[in-house]
Amino acid sequence: MKRTAILSAGILRFISIVCVAVAIALIYRFALLISYSGFDNIKNNLADTASAFLLGTRFDLKVFTTLLSPTIVFIALQTIFKLKIFNKITQIYAFITLLVFVLALIGDYFYYGFFATHYNFLIFGFIDDNTTAVLQSIWTDYPVIRVFLFIVLFSVLLYKLTNIIYRQQFARLLPNNGSRVGWGSVVPILFVPLLFLAVRGRVTHFPLQLREAYFSVNPFVNDLAANCFFTLREAVKSYHNNLLDIDIDRLLQESGLEDMHLDSLSLAGLVQHSPCNIFLKENPPHVIVIQMEGMGLNMMNLDSEKLNILGSLAKELDKCIVFRNFLPSFEGTVYSMENLLTGTTITPLSETTFINRLNTLSMVMPFKKAGYKSSFITGCIKGWRNMDKWIPELGFDNLDGMETILHDIPNAVKQKAWGIFDEYLFEQIEHRLANATSPQFIYGFTITNHTPYETPAHYARPKFEIDESMRKLFLKNDEQMLDCFHTYRYACNCLGDFIHKLRNGKHGDNTIVAITGDHSIKGMIKSGDNELLDKYGVPFILYVPQKYLESKIIDTQIYGSHKDIFTTLFNLALSEAKYYPFGMDMLSADAANNIAINFEIGVQGNEGIIVNNRYQPVHVSETQTFDTKNSEETLRTKARRIEIISKYIIFKSLTGKEEKR
């Protein structure tokens, strides 16, 4: 037999095994649907259900082709040496892979019946808990013998099926038209791009990811699309993150800050209170926090007449308080979000077993205790980075993601990669505010200003002038930079239009808005390693009606970072609120000597700059003169003090060793 025919036959066997796996996975999804939902639950979501099956098939193809891909090596060896042993090895490997695939699906079927979710980190309770007791529960609660007999029978059938497939020569399926290039040559050529597509899951943008399964307002439909191998991989990652080293005694011993008397600290002793304010009790403001994707100072500082990248936001900044000596807590979106919403310097807590204790750290709870209704609103899918699990644990009454916005705003337009364009997120915030019957706390998380940079079709892109002096700052070519500029401007426009509409609407005099970036724009603009604020900085923008600014001190030159935002809001909007001292009130006299700290990169304050994730080498600002040694030690001590107190609060709260606030 010709080598091309051998190669094509091997490829067709590969495809046949993949088809068997996909068919089994399809049966598994129907079993999930019938057993745990029924058609009544999805009759109003038939289109989404059909999409879930199609998306699930893409997940299955990605998983199984990846698992089966090592057989390509044996197919190649058989083609070269024409030895049947390689065909037999391939058959055995395919059978084992199919069997593992089936066992995983069966296990997930029963796991879902108990936990109402696919595999997650709780599966490791089999090891970490009383294993004997777990086994006993499985024996009493599940038809173990029947399942075992089914697996044995199915294994025999799978082996026979693979045997039939690998004995098939497929010669009659490969007719030769008499030319030099017959079907036997075409099959390998077509196979390569098809395999690449199956393993990647899509042609454009990023490879297929689990977060894309969360597209429907019906949670079960989302689960129907998800693949248990994907969730199992996330479970393994979460399990490693669960091994969080919480050792309070060692933290205290290694702090090196004897003057803090850490051994006598308690959570109750650390709790701070905002002042009693009768006006705030009688006139509670709505509070909105906006986390803008990629709103970095490295882009904002480029705004000019030639490069008007702030759009409508530029005029609104004149009506706001803008702090520019400001750093994000981390360099990743979800890490900054966790720090903002819980104060944590240890991330990601949302992927650990401490997820159900995050309310002990929640920045939402002081608002809840003051009678506020709370909403988390984002343009991305709710399942991104486990948000659908940990955001509700913080105490939010509502979680609105892409699915909700598409449902509430029929004309909303999706991006190609991440979710809903920013303008519709702000429209959803306006919707929540317009229907409010009590004070609202709303946390908005935008997503548009992220690679791949994209603006909606209806957005009119202005013409930007780029000269040589600007071009020297770019790390990308003009076309890439223009896409970045336009997306940044679109996001700023959406924000500026929102603030303008709010200021001039019925809630303009009773709503406080706090805005910051999650991190700076990365990989686009050059900057020196020691230019901490220019390279990593983000703005902190506050819109505050005048009546809420009485007795406040406004100095926009002071330093600050994400840790300070909620402390500022508690003192600005709430009377007698209890909170932990993660940060400083940026509108108080105490903030004069505050510092900006990024827990990955470094710290900056009046004393100078220290650039390093552990605050090691010092870089002195050229605009300041001081005793470098003393200033360095002062700045280092300030940063260390913040980190130690934060970790102490987190450790104590998560381990439940002291009462909640």
Rounded radius of gyration (Å): 29 Å
Average pLDDT figure = 86
Taking the sheet with the most strands, its summary is: 7 strands, mixed
- Which outline best applies? globular
Distance separating the two termini: 78 Å
β-strand amount: 5-15%
- Overall helicity: 40-55%
Number of helical regions: 26
Structural class label: alpha/beta
State the strand order across the main sheet. 3-9-8-2-7-5-6
Total number of strands: 15
Low-confidence stretches: 177-181
What does this structure look like?
The protein contains 26 helices and 15 strands. The chain has a 7-stranded mixed β-sheet with strand order 3-9-8-2-7-5-6, sandwiched between helices. A 4-stranded antiparallel β-sheet has the order 12-13-14-15, covered by helices on one side. The chain is α/β, with parallel strands linked by helices.
Give a topology summary.
Layout: H1 3-36, H2 39-42, H3 46-68, H4 71-81, H5 84-115, H6 125-128, H7 131-141, H8 144-167, H9 183-200, H10 219-225, H11 228-242, H12 248-253, H13 267-270, E1 272-273, H14 278-282, E2 286-292, H15 297-300, H16 313-317, E3 321-323, E4 326-327, H17 333-342, H18 365-369, E5 373-378, H19 387-393, E6 398-400, H20 402-408, H21 422-434, E7 440-445, H22 468-471, H23 478-503, E8 511-517, H24 532-536, E9 540-543, E10 560-561, H25 565-573, E11 578-579, E12 596-598, E13 602-605, E14 608-611, E15 618-619, H26 628-655
Parallel strand pairs: 2-7, 2-8, 4-10, 5-6, 5-7
Antiparallel strand pairs: 1-11, 3-9, 8-9, 12-13, 13-14, 14-15
